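Risk register update: the risk of archive-format incompatibility is retired. Evidence:
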Amino acid sequence: MEDSVKADHVAPFDPLSLADHHAAERRLAEVRGRCPVSQPHPRMHFVAAHQDVERILLDTTTFSARSNFRLDPVNGAEGARPSGSLPTLDPPDHANVRRRLREWFAPRTLRLLEPRVRELAAAAVLELPVGVDFDLVPTSKRMATRVVYALIGAPQEDWVQLQAWSDVLHKYLPAPLQGTPEYIAMMNRLGEVLEEYRAGLRAADDTVVSGLAAAVEAGDLAPADALTHIWQLIQAGTETTISLITNLVHALLSRHRQWQLLLDRPELVGAAIEESLRRDAPLQYVMRTPHHATDVSGCPVEYDEQVVVGLQSANWDESVWGPDALEFDIERDHPTGHVAFGKGPHACLGAPLARIEAQAFIRELLSRRSEIRLATGYVHELANELMVRRPERLLLHIPG
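Archived output:
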């Protein structure tokens, strides 16, 4: 994908521009101040203000999710159909699928999983090298993928290959993935595992694949839909957590007073996580399209036009967060209320698990590697991804 697709002059921010993404602090402030509902492309609208973002996320009667995770500057949402994955479904299908998947993200289930998450976090921190510079991104990825694949029930011998395919596919987004060799290979392997559970070649257990296999056998779920749900959980559960952990560690270590405050008051870990989600939302936008012609703050939006809902922009809205909205402050009066994980019916199902992972990892760092710091000369650069906000690398150092 090119760095920038030609944008209408009305909009100073284009969600398809890497240049705008890297300059988001300045560009989004310009949008909120000059044109909070703009049209960067003929059939695409960008929504920047918190009040409009929140309204669209909550209003599933007016706005459909069928074009979610698709950015098309030419056709907008024309031809977009729900993929079967949770983020693209509308009521009542969305509620039915969410109810089925919620079993694995219920508080009781996550409490049972939490000791395993703490074990993986402890192992990840103990693996960090001492006396040399290292990149935290691969470490956070290993931890996040181990948690998700264990929850899903993917065979451990497949984890490395599954993640290799997933990494390639993530780089394609927001382009369509179906038909790519990696997508076909990954879905074929997941399909084999699903069939092994259905055939009794793998003993039934409390994993996602096992549960969905039972639903397929009972005639309650089509095999293709089960595979779509498994795939979506892998994609959502890994990248969000990787971004959260790396953004949080960078925010803390690049502001030494904040790291020291957390060392002195570890009870602020939860607040630090929420402030990181607000300040550096892992996912920058979601997409909606109206069920019928409507308007957003007086700006007309036609059927089949796409609305790009600026989650990060809403989280930096000065009218909500004050003039210091771009600052990272774990003592902020109201660290919650952000929309990093969405809001309303489509709020991220796996958000509680991502928070558990981030909290476990930071607590291990605080207790075992409190002397950790940014590597000398490290320069923070965002990854070249349109929809995700995280560092390309996060070089750290633990003194020997």
